[in-house]
Each structure stands twice: as C-alpha cells, then as structure tokens.
Amino acid sequence: MLLSFTFLKEKVGMKEVAGVTVAMLGVILLSTGGNVGSLAGSVFLGNLLQVGVAASYAVSGIVGKALLKKYQPMLVVTLTFVFGAVLLTFFAVVFERNLWPAKLSSEVMVALLLLSFMYCLGLVCWYDVLQHTGVFRLYVLLFTMPVLAVLISVMVLRESFTALDIAFSGLTLLGVGITQLGKTN
C-alpha cells in the first residue's frame, strides 16, 4: 500500500487503510489461531519469512507495473521466471545440496512441469490484469490466500475447522471487502 502510494502515486484513502488493517488483523489471528503471542515463539523464523514474502510481492508489484508500461505481460513473466530460476538455483545449490534426491521420478517431473505451466499461465493473467488495475487494488486480494489455504487444508487434508477459523476468515474477507467497496472496474 505504501509502495504503490509512494512510487505509483495511487490514491490510498482511509477506507483502504481501514480495510487493510482489518484484513491484516484477520490474517494474523487466522495464522496464529488467535494466539498472537505465538508470533514470537517457535515459529518466529516462519513468520519472519512470511514478512519477507509479503515484501517480495509488494516490490514485484511495483516493478511489474513499471515494466508493464514498456513490455507485454508474457515478457515480464519470462523475465520473472528467469530471475526466479537463477535465484532459486543459487540458493538450492548453496544451502540445500545435501537434500536433493538422487533421482526424480517421471511422475514428479510431470507434476513440476504442470505446476510451472499453470503458474506461468496464472502470472500472465495476473500481469495482464495489472496493466489495467492499480497495484494496491489487485494486491489487496492476496489477503484471501490464507483463507483459501485453510479451506483447502480442511477439504484435502481433513484438518479441523473451528468457529474461530470461521470468524478470523470472515474478518479477513471483511477487510478485503472494505477496500473494494464502491470500485467498479
């Protein structure tokens, strides 16, 4: 929100600030099961990495929007994949070389290719929409991801879904809804 306001001069009003605050509170409560004190506990590194992911998404939105003024979404996605592949390969070689399997099965290779294709297709669509939409307006929708993750964990992994999960998911979606109220395109 701050980056889109600062670098792209997007309008951010009180409604947007209130919506993001409510959504962020919902995500924090959903992620901690309502025990905010656990943020500094044994999962601190994971929470710190989540903040890094959020910062990465924020910067990629600003850089992506700037690139889309000059280039088509497919080129931006290609650049994203190449940059990400180089970066991830470097870190995998440096930090996780001993964790690599001796051999990957053909099923794993096909799954990786399908996931890469679907991700690439999703990114092309994402950047296509980003060409015509403000970064803040589009990226605030990412607050729905934890809610979707909880729903998928319930349906696929048969994890429990409590009344608190429902309330915190609702709070998150309410925050997203507040930011989107009155917007037409």
Task: From the structure above, extract its key features.
185 residues, mainly alpha, 8 helices, globular
Q: Would you kindly provide a written description of the structure presented here, covering whatever features stand out?
A:
This protein is an all-alpha fold and about 180 residues long. The protein has one domain (about 1-180). Helices cover about 75% and strands about 0% of the residues. The protein contains eight helices and no strands. The protein has helices at about 1-10, 15-30, 45-70, 75-95, 105-130, 135-140, 145-155, 165-180. Helix 2 packs antiparallel against helix 8 (about 165-180). The chain is globular, with a radius of gyration of 19 Å. The chain starts with a helix and ends in a 5-residue tail after the last helix. The model has no long low-confidence stretch (mean pLDDT about 80).
Shape: globular
Helix content: over 70%
Number of helices: 8
* Secondary-structure element pattern, one letter each: HHHHHHHH
Total beta strand runs = 0
Topology:
Blueprint: H1 2-8, H2 14-32, H3 44-68, H4 73-95, H5 106-132, H6 135-139, H7 144-157, H8 163-180
Helix pairs in contact: 1-3, 2-8, 4-5, 7-8
Q: What's the gist of this structure?
A:
Helix content is 75%, strand content 0%.
